[in-house]
Amino acid sequence: MTDQEKIEVPFGAERVAKTAHGGVVKANLEDTLTLLDRIKLQIHKLIPNPAKELIARAQANSIWMLTFGLACCAIEMMATGTADYDLDRLGIIPRGSPRQADLIIIAGTLPIQMGDQTATVWEQMPEPKYSIAMGVCATDGGPYTLYGYSVLPGADRKIPVNLYVTGCPPRPEALLNSLVELRHMIERREVHASRVLLDANGKPWRHHYVNGVEVGQPEEVTLKRWGELHPKQVEKIEWGAVTPELGTRPEQVELGNRLKERFQVEFIDNPIPSVKLAASELRPLCRYLYDTEGFSRITTVSATDLHGRIGLSYVIENREKGMALALETSVPTEQPEIDTVSDIWAGANSQERSEYDMLGVVFKGHPALKRILLPDDWVGHPLRHDYAWPTTYHGASMY
Amino acid sequence: MAQLDVTPAKEYEGPGATRLSRETTHVVTVRPTLPPSPEATEPFVVNFGPQHPSMHGVFRLQAVLDGEKVLSVEPFVMYMHRNFAKHVENKEYYQAVPYYDRLDYCASMTEEWPFVMAVEQLLDWPVPARADFIRVILCELNRMASHCLTFGTFGMDVGAMTPIFYTFKQREDILDMFEWVTGARLLYNYFVVGGVNQDLPSGFADRCRSFLDQFEKQFLPELLDFLIKNEIYYERSCLIGAMTPELCAQYGITGPNLRGAGVKWDLRKNYPYNPEIKKGYSVYDQFEFDVPIGDAAGGRGVLGSCWDRMMVRYHEMRESCRIVRQALDKLPQGPVQHLPMPRTVYPNGNAYVATEAARGELGTRIIADGTDRPYRAHVNSPGFNAIYALPDLCRNILVADLIAVVGSLDFVMGEVGR
After folding, report:
1. Measured torsion, CA atoms of residues A140, A145, A148, A150, in degrees rounded to the nearest 10
2. Cα dihedral across residues A249, A250, A254, A255: positive or negative
3. Which of A13, A384, B77, B233 has its Cα between 20 and 30 A from that of B14?
4. B274 to chain A, minimum CA–CA distance in Å?
5. pLDDT in tens, B45-75
6. Which has the closest alpha carbon to A75: B414, B223, B212, B312?
7. Contacts of B79 in chain A (CB under 8 A)
8. CB-based contact (8 Å) between B17 and chain A?
């Protein structure tokens, strides 16, 4: 006598197996199925797991997204959420807190300073969570990849991404398409399998095990993707001829005469009347122009790397007379120090910080000279032409 | 009606105080002072951002709060630094225009304009009249679209959820027209050195005029009715965030923020950056339009408050409609580019040009060395100056008012972080 075989047929096989006392069950299972059993079998073929299907449908129809609009794509995300391309009809509403959101749409460029914040926000989102990288900046760095020293090449360097949407910015229809695709992925329960996270070399992130023990990610960054920098020819710049008079209008000429009496200046023929002077004369001149001549507004403080010297340019304005003046000076690159004018014009405060950040000009007497556009522990001054490009910052790679 | 307490704001010197700004005596406090609390309290530091629901991009405000009262704020703008200057230095002049687009992405064409004007100045190229008129038309439409966005988001900042849908519907109409003309909805790359990329399609004038009719006669009165005449909006904006003209001059604040403080200064009419051009730039001197300034809510609020700035934007939308109508009427025939248009340009020299963008005066300095790529490109944006006036502007106000002030200053992080 052979053993009773266990037959793997759902819905009704148990009945058949139990009624056979010993011996081999030879019944044709098709004949033993009742009508109810056949209906149940068909339904099972269509929907193998009805509870999970229902939950998946509920999740797909009610994705709450986190407002993580970073840059230009955020405007298109807002446009997708409002009147013409409504998101609410898909059940997608924006939530402010990551702890109440299912979906994060990384809409915009991720500079490297934002990487840790993005990772924190992702960790604060509870499972099940999905992420969409909207736009080319979040996909691979976009237009800022080629010469970006502080732009992360894509959101997938920091958080796992389910879907990528191309476009700069993507049309609202493209974003809606991606959200519909996300709904299909949720309903088919493919979401977790499709998450992509890249390591510092741009390769898909994998666990690395050595003898069964997990080890860290490869630290050596081998992929180089920056473009070649364009060589700069500082000796070919035509700065403009020296003129005896400042500008063409009578009030400009008179101002020029008054300046020549008091300070050691030269006038340059530029579209804006320009005054060239030594760095040590800048602060007394600014003080004079503010107090006596009524130049109450500073427009721009900008610095330039002139290969051995750093040129500085201050554009100031006198609104009552409708006059603008450009003050051009320069400091040596080895010792780029100049007196601050931030106590004359408060707006110079932040602009001087920005030039310190980008070119390393030290403004003596500035109340709080620290970096403004880059984090405090950044190394180097990026707009210098001999800047040493970093490879990683806080573990994230810019390649 | 709240009591006006016009006292100079005292600088907070406790833990977390910022030393970025000098002692100011021209900021007024116009909220009733909170009653003293019976328990002992101490100030604490809270970070607003870099991810926060108020839709102004990624920036962080480190605020020291005493309960609901803000004692001091320090802004951090390092979260949107996209290496704009390094990219423009290494790309040809035509390739650099999209980087200027992405500075103020809400009103892109107003950002492209100073760059192309600066390069045209260095090359000494005259722009054909038709191109100038097209530039004016599209920039004014861009200004209207950007102000629509500002009203929508400021409405959300003070708690109104509906206006954003109405204003974005108007924006969609304008963006459809832009797509028809330039090919793109948001970031256009349409201005070229010497003109514009391509001519207006036929039928544009009619479509534009019918849009302007609908905008002026239906949408602007609607916006007035459901948002601006709303009691809550009025109470939340007419007494806070008061900026005096001295503050604006000190910080270099321009645009609707400056005009809200009562200063009648608009680069489209007063242009000091080129001695030959005395009245405005481009062809703005051929149009009749007014420059709206703040009026302290008809005397019932404080001059330079959030209300004033937003009303300046409202009236600017109306004035932009006037300008576009006049420009469409006077649009001349002719080429739209400075012909012959070479493959690339080789300017040389040093130029600074500023134009009236939607948010203020956007200035760009270009240093060129005779090659096909700029030597240095520096941008000074209106948002950058406005953000750094926040420490002076946000003393002793409530947290909800802080959000409203930040919204009414209307800065965009793309141009601040560059």
Report:
1. 0
2. negative
3. B77
4. 6
5. 998 878 887 667 888 999 998 888 888 899 9
6. B414
7. 111, 113-114, 117
8. no
Residue of B52, B164, B270 with shortest CB distance to A82: B164
ipTM field: 0.86
* pLDDT band at residue A201 using 50, 70 and 90 as cut-offs: confident
User: How far away is chain A from the Cα of B20, in angstroms, using its nearest Cα?
Assistant: 6
Choose the mutation target among A77, A100, A159, A300 for the interface with B, i.e. most B CBs under 10 Å: A300
User: For A117, left (φ over 0), alpha (ψ -120 to 50), or beta?
Assistant: alpha
Q: Does the beta-carbon distance from B272 to A351 stay under 8 Å?
A: no
Is residue A302 left, alpha or beta, with left meaning phi > 0 and alpha meaning psi from -120 to 50? beta
CB-based contacts of B12, cutoff 8 Å, min separation 6: B64, B71, B72, B395
How far apart are the CA of A247 and the nearest CA of chain B, in angstroms?
A: 7
Contacts of A145 in chain B (CB under 8 A): none
Reported as a single tens digit per residue, the pLDDT across B274-315 is 766 666 788 898 999 999 998 887 777 888 899 999 999 999
Closest-CA distance, B122 to chain A, in angstroms, reads 9
How much of chain B is in helix, strand and coil states, percent to nearest 5? 45, 15, 40
Q: Answer whether A70 sits within 8 Å of B417, measured CB to CB.
A: no
Contacts A–B by Cβ distance under 8 A: 251
CA angle B211, B217, B218 (to 5 degrees): 85
Q: Can you state the angle between helices B129-157 and B163-182, rounded to 10 degrees?
A: 160
β-pair type (A64-66, A103-107) = parallel
Q: Which residues lie closer than 8 Å to A82 by C-beta, 6 or more apart?
A: B152, B164, B165, B168, B169
CB contact under 8 A, B371 and A230: yes
Distance CA B372, CA A185 (A): 48
pLDDT of B23 reads 45
Tokens at residue A43, please? Answer: 């339904």
Q: B388 CB near a chain A CB, below 8 Å?
A: yes
Closest-CA residue to A311 (of B250, B378, B85): B378
Scanning every residue of chain A, which has its alpha carbon at the shortest distance from the alpha carbon of B98? A143
**The pairing of beta strand A103-107 with beta strand A130-134:** parallel
Question: Does the CB of B272 have a partner CB in chain A at under 8 Å?
Answer: yes
What contacts B354, CB < 8 A, 6 or more positions away?
Answer: A299, B114, B267, B273, B361, B362, B363, B364, B380
Instruction: Look up tokens 């080429």; give the residue.
Output: B335
pLDDT at A14 over 60: no
Pairing of strands B348-357, B195-196: unpaired
Which tokens hold the place of B279?
């009245």
Chain A: nearest CA to B203, how far in angstroms?
23
Instruction: Report the distance separating Cα B418 and Cα B100, nearest Å.
Output: 9
Token couple for A378: 């950044």
Is residue A245 very low, low, confident or very high in pLDDT (cuts 50, 70, 90)? confident
